[in-house]
Design goal:
Layout (H helix, E strand, L loop, with lengths): L2 H7 L11 H8 L2 H9 L14 H7 L3 H9 L14 H8 L2 H9 L15 H8 L2 H8 L15 H7 L3 H9 L13 H7 L3 H9 L23 H11 L4 H12 L3 H5 L5 H10 L2
Helix pairs in contact: 2-3, 2-4, 3-5, 4-5, 4-6, 5-7, 6-7, 6-8, 7-9, 8-9, 8-10, 9-11, 10-11, 10-12, 11-13, 12-13, 13-14
Length: about 280
């Protein structure tokens, strides 16, 4: 088999080596050592057998200064691992806001094509629970409805991992609250993790409490009888939304980003209260 063809299929690096001193310095955050290696001609694009480059290492370990050194030395910004992850995916998974910013400034794709083994950068940020990374990549055009075979949409991921502020960011950017993954909605996930704040948020944005998944279960079926989340969903079942609330949902769909513009300086807790209690 042509070895060049094998290398190309894993990201077109041009190198096929084991872990190098550049990988090690990037992984450990050794900025000065990394700069010396770069200055003396060490390759910043050398890849391990699973196609991990030093840039992947620096991103997953949250070393933005190393990311800067590597990008300045022309590290390939969108190179993929054998599983399809780009450095931006790794930076979002680490919650490294500065690394995300640097990668985007150097042209990283915010919407790399997905594989069966890869989540999008937005998914990774939601799984991590980094609302700042979510906000940053949304502002750079991340697809709200990118679909991951395991998690579904980014909103599914945020709710499955009980990250309220990430869900707030997504919903106010226009994420579809009733998007389906195997007939499950984000509300099913919020019920599973027993988070009444998430349940209230999703319902306020039009979440359907009566939708059934592929097991014919409604969100309330995933709560423990008598628990706060069960009582919360029981309340919504017995007290349909008012005309005022329904009107507010309709307006939010049209003006999905308005709230982020109106209260950008509030801290996270204040924003959550504002979204849940807004009249």
């Amino acid at each position: 088999m042509d070895s060049r063809a094998v290398r190309t299929s894993f990201g077109e690096i041009g190198f096929w080596s084991e872990r190098t001193p550049v990988h090690e310095a990037a992984s450990l955050g050794q900025v000065e050592k990394l700069q010396i290696l770069v200055d003396t001609g060490a390759s910043v694009n050398a890849a391990t057998v699973d196609n991990i480059t030093p840039l992947h290492e620096a991103c997953i370990q949250d070393h933005p200064e190393c990311v800067q050194v590597l990008l300045n030395a022309d590290a390939q910004v969108d190179v993929r691992t054998i599983h399809g992850s780009t450095p931006l995916c790794h930076a979002c998974a680490a919650g490294s806001v500065e690394s995300v910013r640097l990668l985007l400034e150097h042209g990283a794709s915010v919407n790399p094509s997905l594989t069966a083994l890869t989540a999008s950068p937005l998914h990774e940020a939601c799984i991590r629970g980094s609302a700042e990374c979510v906000k940053l990549i949304l502002s750079n055009g991340a697809l709200l409805e990118a679909f991951d075979i395991h998690f579904g949409t980014p909103l599914h991921a945020a709710c499955a991992k009980a990250h309220l502020e990430c869900a707030v960011q997504l919903l106010n950017a226009g994420a579809r609250v009733n998007a389906i993954k195997f007939h499950e909605t984000a509300l099913h996930h919020a019920a599973r993790v027993a988070r009444t704040d998430l349940i209230k948020l999703l319902v306020e944005f039009g979440g359907d409490i009566n939708v059934r998944d592929n097991l014919e279960h409604k969100p309330i079926d995933y709560t423990t009888p008598g628990s706060p989340s069960h009582i919360c969903l029981q309340h919504y079942e017995s007290c349909p939304l008012s005309l005022q609330q329904l009107s507010r949902i309709a307006l939010r769909r049209v003006l999905s980003t308005r709230a982020l513009q109106v209260i950008p300086r509030l801290d996270i807790s204040q924003r959550i209260i504002s979204y849940l209690c807004y009249k």
